[in-house]
Input
Amino acid sequence: MGWVSLDTLAAYWSADEVVTNIIVFMNLLGALLLGFLVGYERSYHGRAAGMRTYGLVCMASCAVVVIIGYPNYWYGTHAPVPTGGASYADPTRVIQGIVTGVGFIGAGVIMKEGLNISGLTTAASIWAASCIGILVGVGFYAAAMLLSLLSAGCMMWVSHLEAWLPSRPAIAITVRFLPEHRPDDRQLAGALLERGYQIAPGSFAVQCGSGQVEWRFVAVALGKDKGMPLWQLAGELAGLSGIGNLAVSHARN
Output
């Protein structure tokens, strides 16, 4: 009966084949749990990508890599044998494809709204989750667990380190002036300087329409505790002459 003979089908359930499947299963389960570990931090903080996303990325990356290690058991041990000294598959090419493909998932969680960019940390951690799966797939279990702990720790505690270190918080400001008003950048820059901020070089954008001028830019605090609180800054800037509408927000990245 050719390829559908009982002997051919039984090869998929031979003792060696079952043992190999168990080994692959344990690798997938371990990768899934490590992905959950990293994804929980994102889920806890209400990010778009949570435990399911990280678990799936990590497990799938592991699945693609781990099967490369058992070419003799492909297709129920009936895989054609390469000739001329060729190998079944090049693991480095498979890993390259995984890292490239996961980049598209990371790009999907990066959001840009005005001058604010969010999702960069989530994108980077998804990429790290794929690397964890790759490490599990090739058998570097200790390295995979260490990378999981380092990734989760980085996302949970580095923000506290950043808060402790000297920094210059940035804010995004959008100003729409009253019709026919001619804004003066020196006046606005001086007002910000008095309140502990300076306009970041290269962040200025100007839009004109219907007789109104709109400025969008990023202002950087002169020091960690030198910038005026956001709510107070917005109230004082709104009181400047010629300003019609004002929007102030933290410049997230």
